[in-house]
Design a protein that fits this description.
It is built from ten helices and no strands. The chain is mainly alpha-helical and 541 residues long. Keywords: Coiled coil.
Length: 541
């Protein structure tokens, strides 16, 4: 029976519900009780309805022994009292009936009926209340040993539940402490994992920046190498061009040398021709000398004048011949002393110009003398004409020789200019060759430096590759540590989940036990309230 009472309210059987309903009811027959209550509520119970309801809601377990202590004596005291009160009720009802018969004619029907009804209802309520009290007292005296046994069992069960609750609370505290420790360890591991991940991200970022910088350096160095290769190719092209230009210049120099040799041979030929003309001039001079002698023999006076003129002209011719010889000597020494010869020629030309001016002045003076002596020399005109014709021929030959000499001088000047041009060209080519050789040396030095830089870059690249491999190994180790930490965190999370599941199971078990405890307490409260109400009402009455 006790196990049935301790069951939840929605699961209790019909006999338990009937028993609890009988405990709550105040009359032996529930049907009559409900009928009377529905028609007329008890006026005595109206002011005590709040107290009744508050008592009915539940009584503490400490009030159970108070209700149990007055179990047997009230039974002996309440039965005669109930009997006397029931007899008084019967007498009052009989008096009411007699009064109804005597006073029916005096009062009006409405007032009499109201008073009679009120009196009748009051008497019925008192009678029903007394009967309920008697029935409750009887039930309380009959059920007292069972209730004490039930209360003792409930108290023992409550003590057992309390000890279990204490052990469960201790276990819960231990598990909460272990959960807090696991959560703290998990937080530390999570923080460590975050720090490791942040450090790994920073290291990875730094490594990526270093790799990007190294790639940029490699790209820049490759660009510089390509530029150096382009410069080397350009230098090689320039060197080839300068070599071809040098070969062409050498060919031109050889051709110019050949031309110069040809011109020298031509100059020698002209010098030979000039020597022949000089011999002819000597023969002409001898002829002139013979003519002079003849002229001196023929005419003395005329001869003096003419001879003076002729001597002057011969002197001029000799001077010009000397000049021609000097020019020939200058032509011989053209290749060795070009600048000195040109300056000498300029000075000699100036001297010759001065001499020509002097000769012109002398000629003017001679002409004046001739004009004065024309009258006197009329006899020797024919001879003079012949001499003049010869002189004209000699002058013509001399002019021809002068023209030829001038041509030779022009040729020598042209050759000198050509030689100077060739010298300047050869100097410029030598300068270009020296600059090309310097460039080639510079390019070879640059190539050597580029090769050294390439070797150094290859070494740096190999070192960087090794450094990147070491960093990759470190990253792999960090990844392994992160994987281990994550596996440890997952195991801790699994343990934490197991602890949480155990905690949820324990909380469910504890909630179920607390539900049973509440149901037992509710049953005890209902029992104590059902026992306490009739006794208190009986004591009041």
């Amino acid at each position: 029976m006790t196990s049935r009472i301790s069951e939840p309210i929605g699961v209790q059987g019909p006999d338990v519900l009937e028993w609890s309903r009988s405990l709550r009811s105040r009359s032996p027959s529930p049907a009559k009780h409900t009928a009377t209550r529905s028609r007329s509520p008890s006026p005595r119970l109206r002011p005590n309805s709040s107290r009744h309801n508050s008592v009915h809601r539940g009584v503490y377990l400490t009030e159970v022994p108070r209700a149990i202590r007055s179990s047997s004596p009230p039974r002996m005291a309440t039965s005669p009292l109930l009997r006397t009160r029931s007899a008084a009720v019967r007498k009052s009802t009989g008096g009411i009936a007699a009064s109804l018969g005597g006073n029916a004619g005096k009062l009006s029907k409405s007032v009499a009926l109201d008073n009679i009804e009120a009196e009748y209802i009051k008497n019925l309520q008192q009678q029903i209340y007394f009967l309920e009290l008697e029935e409750q007292a009887r039930k309380a005296t009959d059920m007292h040993p069972q209730m004490t046994n039930e209360a003792e069992r409930m108290l023992s069960k409550l003590r057992q539940l309390q000890s279990e609750m204490d052990s469960m609370t201790l276990e819960m505290r231990r598990k909460d402490d272990s959960l807090d420790f696991v959560e703290n360890e998990k937080g530390k591991l999570v923080e460590r994992l975050k720090d490791e991940e942040d450090a790994r991200v920073r290291d990875k970022r730094m490594l990526m920046d270093e790799i990007i910088q190294l790639k940029k350096n490699i790209v820049g160095l490759e660009g510089r190498l390509s530029e150096k290769d382009g410069q080397m190719l350009q230098a090689r092209d320039e060197l080839e061009k300068s070599g071809t230009a040098l070969r062409n210049a050498e060919v031109k120099i050889t051709s110019i040398k050949n031309q110069l040799e040809q011109r020298v041979e031509q100059h020698k030929m002209t010098q030979i021709a000039l020597d022949e003309k000089r011999s002819e001039l000597l023969s002409v001079e001898t002829q002139l000398k013979s003519l002079e002698e003849k002229y001196y023999n023929s005419t003395v006076n005329l001869q003096d004048k003419v001879t003076s003129d002729l001597r002057e002209e011969i002197r001029v011719l000799r001077q010009r011949l000397k000049e021609a010889e000097l020019s020939a000597e200058q032509e011989r020494h053209l290749r060795a002393k070009v600048s000195d010869d040109s300056s000498k020629i300029v000075r000699e030309n100036a001297v010759l110009n001065q001499q020509v001016i002097d000769l012109e002045k002398q000629l003017e003076r001679e002409r004046n003398l001739r004009e004065e002596n024309e009258a006197r020399h009329s006899t020797g005109v024919s001879n003079m004409l012949q001499l003049k014709d010869k002189e004209k021929e000699a002058r013509f030959e001399l002019e021809y020789m002068k023209e030829k000499l001038q041509k030779e001088q022009e040729k020598c000047l042209e050759l000198q200019e050509a030689v100077t041009r060739k010298d300047s060209i050869s100097k410029s080519q030598e300068h270009e060759l020296s600059t090309a050789l310097k460039k080639m040396n510079e390019l070879t030095n640059m190539q050597d430096s580029c090769e050294k830089e390439n070797i150094q870059l290859r070494r740096d690249k190999s070192l960087l590759v090794d450094h990147v491999a070491d960093l990759q190994k470190k990253l792999d180790l960090k990844n392994e540590e992160v994987v281990q930490l994550r596996s440890r965190i997952s195991s801790l999370e699994a343990r934490l989940q197991d602890f949480e599941e155990l905690k949820s199971l324990e909380t469910n078990i504890q909630s179920q036990k607390w539900g049973e405890f509440e149901r037992l307490a509710e049953n005890m409260r209902t029992l104590s309230s059902s026992m306490a109400r009739p006794q208190s009402r009986y004591l009041q009455h």
